[in-house]
User: Fold this.
Amino acid sequence: MNPARIDVFDLAKRRLDWVERRQTVLARNIANVSTPAFQPRDLPPFTQALGRAIGAAPAQTRPGHLNGTLDAAAGAASLIRPVARAPDGNAVSLDEQLSKVAETQTTQAMVTTIYRKYLGLFGLALGRTP
Amino acid sequence: MTDVTKPDLTKTLRVSTSGMDAQSARLRVIAENLANQDSTGSAPGAAAFRRKTITFESKLDAAVGAETVRVKRIGQDQSEAPLRFDPSHPAANADGYVKLPNVNSFVEMMDMREAERSYNANLAVMQATRAMLNRTIEMLK
Assistant:
């Protein structure tokens, strides 16, 4: 990638996609904190998701077809190694999951701020006072 | 039908809501158990109230397009009912023993704390998701 031509908007879009997807995965883990034998999942790190070429996704050719729940491009949510396991087989650790939620929230705040700043630069270039 | 592969923060809110619903159902069952911890039968030798149990499962909700949690079954605790010697009780059997509910208030209290904690965790995710949604809307300004 040519560093002079980094597309900040595209990068921000991809990162926000990843953040939203991860938030859904984490919400699901926390919602299932009392479900017997439930295994928590997580997305692969963003750098990995970014490096992956867009894979082939099954096409929906008839209205009755169901979409897969996993997106090939973003990387599927995979099982994570459990920290501790309850007697009923549930392996969700609330503190771990909540710290991940906080992390995701911070990332999203960072990306949206960068996006707005970058957008502001265009205004500056066009001679508008910020 | 909603596209399940599309990331969507409102979908995340629905998942958290289902978690909160499940925990409230659990709290309701705990309340029923605690309220009935002295409910014995009235006929001689009659069975007393049995403790209720609740289990959850993760299911794909086609309307939401995400896996949500729901109540799988509300069952009964099959453990043996404790006996108390009280010949004057209307539910006493021929030997003078009364069957008591198999509710242990300490177990219920612990369960209640856990349900409360899980409910709060779901609420925290919901607040985080809402903050993220607001920040996304802010980008338009």
Summary: The longest helix of chain B spans residues 105-138. The CA atoms of residues 132 and 138 of chain B lie 10 Å apart. The first strand of chain B starts at residue 52 and ends at 61.
